[in-house]
Amino acid sequence: MSGLQQGKIAERRRMLLDLIRQNQGVTTKELYRLYREHGGEEVLKTIQNDLKYLREKWTGGELVRRGRRNYLEWIDAPLGEALSRQEEEKRIYIKLALDSVRKMEDLAEMHEEIIEELRLDRNPMPFYMKSESFQELDTDDETVLELEEAIVHDSNVAFTYRGEDFHIAPLRIVNFDGIWYLYGYDHEERESNKWKTWLLSEIGNLEVYVSEKHDIDDEAVEEDLEEAFSPRFVPDRQIRVLLRVWGAARELFRLKEQVPRQLILSEEEDFMTVESTVSTLDAVEAEIKSFLPHIEVLEPATLREKILTELRSYLAKR
Description:
The chain contains 11 helices and 12 strands. By secondary structure, it is of the alpha+beta class.
């Protein structure tokens, strides 16, 4: 075969690859027409040979599958394309992200399958991510599925929760410290704080109002959740907490953020002064207690007094 013929064949195969990658793929009928226009003889056989060549020689595995409406689809695009070029940093990033949630009940079943499909274990990984402990979540549960649909379509819902009835705009199913919550906007007038979280496992009698829509801005929801440190937060409400930290706790505060919106204001020889910004004081209370006796609340006075009262009560019982 001449170099000119080989060049034409390679050009045709690149054309085929580009066609499959585009949009939702290409039908065999469309391929037949295009190959005829491209001057191919024995068109069907040529298409089959080209597809086989691309699978075996250019990608080292399966390239296309027959998808919806009989379309030939490019598998794992654009991710598959990136990984096939051996972009190691992308490989590491994806593997770490997947491993961080590998123990999430029914989602865990997908983990090894995805790892294998993306060929992420082909080379040794220099990093290891130990997965967190997550509350079990059944993504096929009827309540979860209905909430997903309501969130996607901006529908309001009603449900019972710990003996109360709620009528809300569901915004996200979120995870804080391994526990699953529903985050949403309470339409009732009973409290000043309308932005709330409900334990997902305690939601009952869910009813979705398909025709009743809310108009809460989706980007604003993402921004609010990006700032959230715990399930007890209120958008646009800020309370300054001032802490003194010493002893073994100092190094932990240097290594990573231990309290919401942590800012180290100063470091002295024996202690550091740390600022935290929260929307409710109980969002930081548990973290403070976990560092006793190497931490002291300087501000606000209400939080300081609450923790001191609890400590005195505990010591009086000993």
